[in-house]
Amino acid sequence: MRCLNWSYPIWKRLLLLATTLVVVARCDASQAGGRGYNTANLEAVHAEPSSQDVQQKAKNVLFVVIDDLRPQLGCYGQQYMHTPNIDKLASQSLVFDRAYCQFAFCAPSRNSFMTGRRPDRVKAWSFRDHFREPGIGENWTSLPEYFKKNGYLTLGVGKLFHPNLPPKYDPPSWNEEVFPYFNPPSSRYCPGNDSRCGLDPKTTNFSDIETLAAGLERLEYAAKHTDKQPFFLGVGFHKPHLPWKVPAEFLDLYPEEGIDLPKNGYFPHGAPELAWNDCWKVWEHPFADTDVTTYSVNTSMSDADVRGLRRGYYAAVSFMDAQVGKLLDRLDALGLAKDTVVSFHADHGWQLGEHNMWCKMSNYELGTRVPMMIRAPWLSSTAGKRSAALVELIDLYPTLADLAGLAKPTENIQGTSLSPLFTNPAATLKNASFSQFPKCGPNWAWMNPCGGTRRTEFTYMGYSIRTADYRYTEWVTWIGSELKGNWSNVVARELYDHHGDTGTDLSAFENTNIASSQVAVSQQLSTALREMFQNDT
Predict the structure, then answer these.
(1) In CA terms, which of 26, 285, 286, 456 is 20 to 30 Å from 59?
(2) Structural contact between residues 465 and 528, judged by C-beta atoms closer than 8 angstroms
(3) Model confidence pLDDT, tens digit, residues 99-113
(4) Helix, strand, coil: what percent of the chain each, to 5?
(5) By C-alpha distance, which of 401, 517, 68, 439 is closest to 278?
(6) DSSP alpha helices (H): ranges in 92-193?
(7) Which active-site residues does the annotation give?
(8) 3-state secondary structure of 448
C-alpha cells in the first residue's frame, strides 16, 4: 500500500489553507544556547495541519549524516571494528555497497546531496561558495525544504550543511519557529595540539554528545505531534572528523599494537603527482617520530605514527556509533520506528595512509566511496539485504521523497530514485557514478585542494567515473572566467582496474595506473565523462 498520495486535490487545497494560517515569529538562535524552542509559536505551527489534514500513513524521516566516514564498519567487512549500533541498523536496512559522493570535501559534497545536483551545477567546489548565491540556486528547494513544503515538520541539528554554506544552515529548510537550528561548537584540537586523544567525558565537552542531546529533544517533541504532521529530522554527527577527541573508553577498544598498517602505503605507480594530497590537517599535528618536513608523495610517515592515527580514527568511529545507537534507541522507545525512514550515510570517504595519503580530498575510491543504508520497516523484504548497484549521494533526495510517499520532485534535480532497489536489490539503475575534485597551485609538486581559493582561480579539475569494473579520472585545466573545465587540454589520465573488488579489502585496488596500457578502455570512459560533464553547467 502506498503510504501517502500527495497529489490529491484536497491535499493541495489544504496545503494552501495551511500556508495562510502560519503566523510565526522567528526566535533568536542564541536563545538557550540555540537548543530551546519557542513555546509561543507552537500552537500556531501545529494548528497548520490538523489530524484530518495529514493522512495517517505519512512516513517520518530520520536523516543521519556522518562526517569523514569511509566504510570502516563491521557491516562493511571490517570485522575488527566495534560498531554494534550501525551494524544492527544495517541488519534492518537495505545496504548499498557501492555508494559514492560527488565531491570529497565537506561543504561541496553537502551542497550537492542536499540539493540533488552535481557540483558543476551547484557551482560550489570550495569553502567559499554555496547554492543559495544569486543566479545559481536561490530559488531551489533543498531536500529538507521539499518535505517542509509538503507539510512536514523539518528540524535539524549538528552538521548537515557545512557551517555558513549556505548562511545560517539555510533557514528556508527548517521550521526554525519551533526549534532554531543548532550545531554545537567544537574545539579544534586535543590538548597539546595533537590529533587524537582520549579524555574524561565528565570533564570534557564533546560536540557529538551535545548534538545527540539536541536531536533527542527535537525527536521527543516531534513524537508528540505526529498525529498532526509527520517529521523530517536531520542529525549530523561530526566524528570521525579531526580531531579524534573522544572519551578514553573508545581508544581502549583498539590497542595500538593491534592496529594494522595499509598494505599499499605508497602512491599508485604511474599516477600523476597532482592527484596526491598531503592533508595538512594531519601533518600539522605533533607526532612521535615523523619529521613532517620530509613527508612527501614518495616518503611515508613512520609506522608508529600511521598506527597511532589509524587508532584515533577507529576510536572516533566507535564513539560516533554509540551516539547513533542512542538516537535509534530513542526512536524505537517512542514507538516511531515502524513509521520512520532512517537514512544513514557519510558526506565522503577518507584515506588512512593508503596510497601514502590522508584525509579525503581526492578522486580515489577511498576518498569518494561512502557507507550508505536506508531502513524502511514497511518494506521488510529488504531488511538486511545488500545492493551492489552503483548509487550516488545525489540519489538520496528523490529516494527519500519516494519512500515517504511524496510526489516526484518537479525541479530539475539530477539524482535517481533508488526505490526500485527495494523491490529488487540486484537491479542496475545506472552504469556509472561520477565524482570530481580541483587542484590549485604553481606546479604539481605543490598542489593544494583549493579549499580557500576563489573558484575563478582554480588550476585544474579532475573528473572521475566509476563503473562496475574501472575507475577513470581525467585532469583538465580550469577556465576560471567560464567556471568549467577545459576538455581540450587534458594534462593527465588515470585508469584503475576494479575487477573482483568486493569493497572489503581497502588496500587491494587502485595501486597501478594502467591508462597508458589500456587505451581503448580509457577512450571509452573518457567519452562517458564528457557526456556527463561537458555541458553540465
Answers:
(1) 26
(2) yes
(3) 999 999 999 999 999
(4) 35, 20, 45
(5) 439
(6) 106-113, 119-122, 143-149
(7) 106, 162
(8) strand
